[in-house]
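Researcher: Quick one. two chains, 469 residues in total.
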Amino acid sequence: VNCSRFEKLISLYIEADLAGRKSQQVENHLNMCPACRRFARELGQSQILLKKLRNESVDDDAFLTVQDRVLSALASREDCAQRAGLPVTRWTWDWREALVVGLVLLLGSLSFWKILPPKEPPSSLSGLNNKSTANRSPVGKPNERAVAGIAQGRSVGGQELVRSQTATRRKRVAERPRLSRPFKAQTSPRATAVAASGRLENPKAEVMDSQMEIQQALGETARDRSGEGESNPGNRAAKPDPLVVKLVTDDPEVVIVWLIDQNGGKQ
Amino acid sequence: MMTGSGCAAEQTPEPEEFTRLLKRAKTGDASAFRQIIVQHQRQVLMTALRLLGRLELAQDAAQEVFLRLHKYLHRYNEAREFSPWLYQVTVNVCRDINRHSRENSMLSLEELQYSGALEEAVDPIDLEAVVSRAEERRIIAEALKTLPEKEREALVLRDIEGLSTKKVACILGSSESTVRSQVSSARVKIKKFAERFLRRKP
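Model:
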């Protein structure tokens, strides 16, 4: 008989933790094995000592220390809550109430987004001009200074020109393919033209398109200048009109206009 | 965290007086909560002491148990038995403390024997004299420290706190057969640890 197999069974048997059949099996083994009987006797003694720990205690001071620490921690928590203006009473919501409140908040926020009107685009172009020139240096190239001049209202008729040509440009822009990426500001005039016309599928085509627009705008400005010169030659001799370069973005309301000073930006 | 699963079978209702005390404490009555502490501090502190092996750690554990009790008291259902619930919180807190203080963690019996700490557990002078009953208990307490955490929890609740196997299984969240296996293994280890010293008695 393998007695080591009975060690754990004996430890359960002496505390009456074994069921009937196994208990009988251990009892039969103990009757015929003196070594296991001695093991059971010694185990019984150590169990008696173990159970004596049940009656042991510690000093009252140890309990008082715990009491004081708990009550002072609770008092300081309530003080902090009162100082912060928080209610001392605890929440008594269960998970069902919390779920209902969460659903109401979710539905409320969804309905709010649905009834919220779409954001209106800005109606004034003067504000736009200010925005489009704000990130450029006013002391850079002459044409950049001219743009700054429009933004500051020094140029005559620049904004009126933008407004008058916006309606015709809208139509053209509406026929263009949509942007695949948002507008990105760039510094050089050509790069700005590309960016203003949008990131199209074919980058070469968009550069050409922008260049054509620039040339068109230059032609219109030249024609305007020649007509104006015929009607008022004295004025032209005194002060040549600036060239107007207009760039159209995918947004019909956004039109960037360069006024190129013919005097090299000296005026 | 503060709920016990499958422990309803062996429940005995709490006395009416204690139920009233709990209701008062739930509404924020500080004196009622203090009475609950006084009534249960021995259970909490001594269980923690046996599970952790050091009074300072046991006091920390008891403090945390009562603070958690205060925090989650509003979730407690009076239909359930209070004492097993409190044992469950105590065991969980002691596990957390043991996890966070590895330097104080208990060595296994094998590690202790290998390191020679077993030979130093009892003062050599006492080995020559008759080992008093207090010394015997001290040996058992030292032996308890050498047990693995799960076995120590099962043995403390079953043999020292005197709970039934079913309640111990509920508190520890394990099956009765697992508890029986842990308890039997722990009893044999305690006996083997103790006999090394008890046999030296003249």
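Chain B touches chain A at residues 28, 30, 33-34, 37-38, 41-42, 45-46, 49-50, 55, 59, 62-63, 66-67, 70, 74, 133, 136-137, 139-141, 144, 155, 159-162, 165, 180-181, 183-185, 187-188, 190-191, 194-195, 198 (CB under 8 Å).
Researcher: Thanks, that's what I needed.
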